[in-house]
TrEMBL record:
<dbReference type="GO" id="GO:0005615">
    <property type="term" value="C:extracellular space"/>
</dbReference>
<keyword id="KW-0378">Hydrolase</keyword>
<keyword id="KW-0645">Protease</keyword>
<dbReference type="GO" id="GO:0051603">
    <property type="term" value="P:proteolysis involved in protein catabolic process"/>
</dbReference>
<dbReference type="InterPro" id="IPR025660">
    <property type="entry name" value="Pept_his_AS"/>
</dbReference>
<dbReference type="Pfam" id="PF08127">
    <property type="entry name" value="Propeptide_C1"/>
</dbReference>
<dbReference type="Pfam" id="PF00112">
    <property type="entry name" value="Peptidase_C1"/>
</dbReference>
<feature type="signal peptide">
    <location>
        <begin position="1"/>
        <end position="27"/>
    </location>
</feature>
<feature type="domain" description="Peptidase C1A papain C-terminal">
    <location>
        <begin position="100"/>
        <end position="335"/>
    </location>
</feature>
<dbReference type="InterPro" id="IPR000668">
    <property type="entry name" value="Peptidase_C1A_C"/>
</dbReference>
<dbReference type="InterPro" id="IPR012599">
    <property type="entry name" value="Propeptide_C1A"/>
</dbReference>
<dbReference type="InterPro" id="IPR000169">
    <property type="entry name" value="Pept_cys_AS"/>
</dbReference>
<dbReference type="GO" id="GO:0004197">
    <property type="term" value="F:cysteine-type endopeptidase activity"/>
</dbReference>
<dbReference type="InterPro" id="IPR038765">
    <property type="entry name" value="Papain-like_cys_pep_sf"/>
</dbReference>
<dbReference type="GO" id="GO:0005764">
    <property type="term" value="C:lysosome"/>
</dbReference>
<keyword id="KW-1015">Disulfide bond</keyword>
<protein>
    <recommendedName>
        <fullName>Peptidase C1A papain C-terminal domain-containing protein</fullName>
    </recommendedName>
</protein>
Amino acid sequence: MQMATSLGVFTLLLFLGTSFHSQVIAAAPDSKLKLNSMILQESIIKKINGNPSAGWKAAMNPKFSNYTVGQFKYLLGAKPTPKKELRGVPVIGRLKSLKLPKEFDARKAWPQCSTIGRILDQGHCGSCWAFGAVESLSDRFCIHFGLNISLSVNDLLACCGFMCGDGCDGGYTIYAWRYFVNHGVVTEECDPYFDDIGCSHPGCTPEFPTPKCVRKCIDKNQLWSQSKHYGVNAYRTSSDPHDIMAEVYKNGPVEVDFTVYEDFAHYRSGVYKHITGDVLGGHAVKLIGWGTSDDGEDYWLLANQWNRGWGDDGYFKIKRGTNECDIEENVIAGLPSARNLDLVRQVAAVDALGFGDASA
């Protein structure tokens, strides 16, 4: 009797196991099919452009004309920071009494800072987390110290290692800013971005692996250590829109990450809000201002790093004040440091005069 019961239980488990395995195998092709389908869909464009309350326009952006869903997902490299890690990060709030303009554009506020208006290209790598951080810090060096410099995404991407995440397979925005404090970041001139092909052409494949950390300037007349620019601190801004605006108004652009859905790939103009499509991942960008549309929609103004062939000449607007796609949830920044700046200026002066060899 006991043997018969055991045999029955075993048969039941075997059946359940086979059934479960069959369900998993059956689900796999659907998932693969989804990843291999094209990211740009006429049906999504029609749904958005045919919706008078959408507030934005969609198009078949040539940037992603040959991209599959899987290839697009690879570019979304902003990993969610574990909540326990965020507990030790200072949260900055600003005085509510601070009067802020109804609209603000960092490009106009600091016209002498050319980096603010640059639209870059992360190419074949999920390095958005590094781009948003390095671009914001570059802008802040100009705003606070008058240095119009482009800092190196490559340094952060290649040399931060596992502390920042997985390089081209994604990273954590807060650790990027901590890297600036602890290790500094060299200039783009010293260590240019590894993917010089970029993604201006349709269908950027295959995906590139994370570059190796070399710690040497490509120009042998420059020293890696002398090219380092540091951050003073790394902090979060509260999710209150007023605090975010005050931070940008006082100190310059900030890095934000947000949740990306399928429809975002189709953005062309207007104030984006999620209308249709599945969630695909997290993306980090640079927030440079805010305003209100002619239709009365409050928005954030952001610079993306998908070249100028995407969106509104590389920029986009997203609804402000409602935490659209979690855009107000994780705002990261830090102040630039004067550390090493005297040496940097001395080396720059020598180079400008054409004297000496900085590697000597």
